[in-house]
Design brief:
Radius of gyration: 20 Å
Bound molecules: S-adenosylmethionine
Structural class: alpha/beta
Shape: globular
Largest sheet: 7 strands, mixed
Strand order of the largest sheet: 3-2-1-4-5-7-6
């Protein structure tokens, strides 16, 4: 598609909440933005701009005074930026949320939204190395300024590190065998590409190869992008960043992310008293849950957009007074 058409499309979409055609279909769009309870002149953050679907929906509910700061660590996202002076795109990891907002002169906001994981665009761009469908270098970096790639993980991590990643991040049934096999094979050949990687492991695949490699790739992607570490750091900044009464809405796509969000919203900490008997259980959690149960996509949305099937939305609000 030509640049000119891209630009035209960007302008047409200025105030529309429609998807940025082909880039990404926003998931739980209305539910998540409704959940922010937008004040038209408020200041909001979209931690995961991507194709800008959620950002455009937020902008459509803001007046001229309203402001939106959007984060995305992937340089490709900037092509979707609407021509609107109320939005500023910050090409950084959302783990540095407060730092970059402060640089923009913002200390407190009315709402924060995050729609985690990778965009369809990232999956569909063969060269990015996220998808098992294409052959490319093992890359999987959302931020291409970062050094660590999936190649480094596969070719330099120890057997026990690999085992842990595949078990914890991918729930791969034979993660121990997989780690052992990788270490064995890489002594003989460099596992540079997706095809080389898949071929080398062909004989140890368990069950449906498509599902198997999807789990293996998920694990590598989470490790390469330190997705859980970034999420934890971002969540820890939310209670101080939100104004009293401000809201946070987070959409997750697998149980590891969802568990972190659920526990943090419930307890205001990642530690549990069983894990650490010395944590201060009397400290007040500044967040309160807006919905006890996560909000799931409707059947209709799941049918129209199969990628939404695993999505879960959780919303919390900062107490007015602690
Ligand atoms: C699921 S997509 C978001 C789609 C977006 N809500 C939309 O409607 O188009 C996730 C986006 O967040 C970005 N992302 C993921 N983790 C990030 C992080 N830790 N910091 C900054 N951006 C991140 C990815 O690069 C990707 O573009």
């Amino acid at each position: 598609m030509g640049k000119k058409r891209d630009n035209e499309k960007r302008n047409d979409a200025k105030h529309s909440s429609e998807e940025q055609d082909g880039y990404h279909i926003p998931v739980l769009l209305k539910e998540s933005v409704d959940g922010l309870n937008i004040s038209p002149d408020g200041t909001y953050v979209d931690c995961t701009f991507g194709g800008g679907g959620h950002s455009r929906e937020i902008l459509s509910r803001l007046n001229e005074q309203g402001r939106l700061f959007a984060f995305d660590q992937d340089a490709a996202a900037k092509d979707n930026l609407p021509d609107d002076k109320r939005i500023e795109l910050i090409q950084q990891n959302f783990r540095h949320l407060q730092r970059f907002l402060r640089l923009a002169g913002v200390n407190a906001v009315d709402g924060v939204l995050a729609d985690l994981g990778v965009s369809s665009h990232q999956f569909d761009e063969a060269d990015r190395g996220f998808s098992t469908r294409f052959n490319a270098n093992l890359d999987m970096r959302m931020d291409q300024r970062q050094e660590l790639t999936a190649y480094d993980v596969v070719n330099t991590y120890s057997e026990s590190q690999l085992h842990k990643i595949f078990e914890q991040y991918g729930e791969v049934t034979n993660s121990k065998t997989l780690a052992k096999k990788i270490v064995e094979v890489r002594k003989l050949t460099s596992l540079k590409t997706i095809d080389a990687f898949k071929t080398a492991l062909r004989e140890i695949v368990k069950g449906n190869p498509h599902k198997y490699f999807a789990q293996v790739f998920q694990a590598l992607r989470i490790e390469v992008n330190d997705e859980l570490g970034a999420l934890k750091e971002m969540l820890q900044q939310i209670p101080t960043l939100l104004k009293p009464g401000g809201r946070v809405a987070i959409i997750t796509f697998h149980s590891l992310e969802d568990r972190l969000v659920k526990n943090f919203f419930r307890r205001g900490t990642f530690e549990t008293p069983d894990e650490n008997p010395f944590i201060n259980t009397t400290s007040v959690n500044e967040l309160i849950l807006v919905n006890k149960k996560p909000i799931l996509p409707s059947e209709d949305e799941q049918k129209k957009n199969p990628r939404s099937r695993s999505a879960k939305l959780r919303i919390a609000e900062k107490r007015m007074m602690v």
